[in-house]
Specification:
The protein is an alpha/beta fold. The chain has 2 domains: about 60-355, Glycosidases (TIM Barrel, Alpha-Beta Barrel), CATH 3.20.20.80; about 355-465, Sandwich (Immunoglobulin-like). Helices cover about 30% and strands about 25% of the residues. It has 12 helices and 18 strands. The strands form 3 sheets. Strands 1-2-3-5-6-7-8-9 form an 8-stranded parallel barrel, surrounded by 4 helices. A 6-stranded antiparallel beta sheet has the order 10-12-13-18-15-16. Strand 1, helix 3 and strand 2 form a beta-alpha-beta unit. The radius of gyration is 22 Å and the shape is globular.
Length: about 475
């Protein structure tokens, strides 16, 4: 006999998808968009867009390293071999020198002052405020300083003051802050949802009236008002043992809009580890040691305009030790090789990708998509700006404009549930006379005169496409 609870959950998900499908046009026509800037954007700061010691005009590939152990001076060379550009890591002088030798940048923990976690105490603030151009520790490998991980909304005003002081030092280093994902819980973000009553009746069971989403938008809105940084970073680990977390794409959507509308870059910390070996007892995050795990996370992030992908974790971290990219002894794991293989696809177009500005993203055949609770994205991308795609498979499509000239770019991702191991295919029609370049799948293919192009995707795979 079918499980009633399972059937009821399936019915509710179907209802949400159908409701969102029919309600979204009404929302867009009436101007009741769910973007952070429209709902909570009053007083938001437009990013200053500073110059840094590193190249910030390209896709950056990094990894989060929560500590130093063993022969840690060997880590930078291993990072380079995995096609990484930088590490977010605890450090010391020897480690910084090894990173310089390997050509790896460092966003450092504890090099100038210690990082904070969730809180931002007066003591922590005082240490950052005590830095001057004369006592600030510089190093050729230093890209920035890790200030706060996953702060509460209540700390943003103090963080803004400290970040402003950091920029005033003139050292061209990034003051790094990383935010929580939606599913951390409403209590971290806002006292209560502010969704108006009329919207709850008009748009029931959609992303526009969801309380956790609304509290999260308030959280991001306060970040935009208080902190003049050129980026928003957050961590999200989508892969459960039995499925994909259903807020994943919505979280990317909310932050991508906020970045687009205020001139910021989106940085995404992705899952390169796990807390449970497939199906055994324990917490519910599966190991991400297949190339497809890293490709889908990477291409999904790129479809929302991410400028940096940061894998968690490189060696030390909060996951099963053997699930990190490196063991405690510094040995490469299956996760390392999965990241290395994925980066081998991303790195060839990293510079080209930086020439385009994200416009929006949408789903094709959204009722079957992994990682989307409502099945519809809310970033308001007009139909006329979408890529003409014909497919019976689940796809995520990100759309970009060239920063200079009239070129276009797209990221197309196979968004079938990875555990189903389903390939995907589509046909895309490009304008005649345009040069279409398709990156991905281990190759670069150029179509000199546009027209119809057939694309096929392995599970989790994607493509970056330019049209010029």
């Amino acid at each position: 006999m079918p499980n009633i609870d399972v059937l009821w959950d399936q019915f509710l998900k179907l209802f949400r998808v159908v409701a969102a499908f029919f309600m979204t046009p009404l929302v867009l026509l009436t101007g009741a968009s769910a973007s952070v800037m429209q709902l909570y954007g009053e007083g938001a700061l437009t990013a200053t867009r500073r110059d840094y010691v590193f190249d910030n005009d390209r896709l950056l590939l990094g990894a989060y390293n929560n500590g130093l152990s063993g022969d840690y001076c060997a880590l930078p060379a291993l990072a380079r071999d995995a096609h990484l550009d930088f590490l977010v890591s605890w450090t010391d002088a020897a480690f910084m020198d090894a990173c310089e030798d390997a050509g790896i940048g460092v966003i450092a923990k504890g090099y100038n002052a210690g990082p904070s976690f969730m809180s931002f105490s007066e003591e922590a603030q005082a240490k950052w405020m005590a830095l001057t151009p004369g006592n600030y520790n510089e190093h050729p490998a230093l890209w920035g300083d890790d200030f706060v991980d996953e702060p509460f909304t209540e700390h943003f005003a103090d963080m803004g003051r400290v970040i402003e002081h950091s920029h005033s030092l003139g050292k061209r280093r990034l003051p790094y802050i990383n935010l929580l994902p939606i599913h951390a819980g409403r209590s971290f973000f806002a006292e209560a949802s502010l969704v108006p009553t009329w919207m709850r009746f008009v748009l029931p069971m959609t992303t526009y009236v969801d309380d956790p989403f609304d509290c999260y938008r308030q959280h991001v809105g306060e970040y935009l008002k208080n902190i003049d940084n050129d980026f928003i970073s957050f961590d999200i680990y989508p892969y459960n043992v039995s499925d994909t977390h259903d807020n994943w794409l919505h979280n990317l959507d909310i932050l991508a809009e906020a970045c687009r509308d205020t001139g910021r870059d989106l940085w995404v910390i992705t899952q390169a580890a796990g807390n449970c070996v497939y199906g055994t007892e324990g917490t519910n995050k599966r190991w991400c040691d297949n190339k497809s795990d890293q490709l889908q996370q990477g291409y999904a992030s790129l479809a929302f305009g991410a400028k940096a992908i940061v894998y968690a974790c490189f060696q030390d971290g909060w996951w099963d030790a053997e699930s990190h990219m490196l063991t405690a002894a510094g040995e490469r794991t299956a996760t390392y090789y999965a990241v290395q293989a994925a980066n081998a696809e991303f790195a060839p177009f990293a510079k080209k990708y930086g020439e385009y500005q994200w416009r929006g993203a949408y789903l094709v055949n959204s009722m079957k998509v992994a990682g989307s609770y409502f099945g519809v994205l809310s970033n308001g991308l007009p139909k006329g700006e979408r890529l003409p795609v014909r497919s019976s498979d689940v796809l995520l499509v990100g759309c970009f404009d060239a920063k200079q000239g009239g070129g276009k770019a797209y990221v197309v991702t196979n968004m079938n549930e990875l555990l189903q191991e389903k390939a995907a295919a589509c046909t895309v029609t490009f304008p005649q006379g345009k040069v279409v370049t398709v990156y991905g799948g281990g190759e670069k293919i150029v179509y000199e005169n546009g027209g119809g192009v057939e694309l096929s995707f392995a599970p989790g795979d994607g493509r970056f496409i330019t049209v010029e």
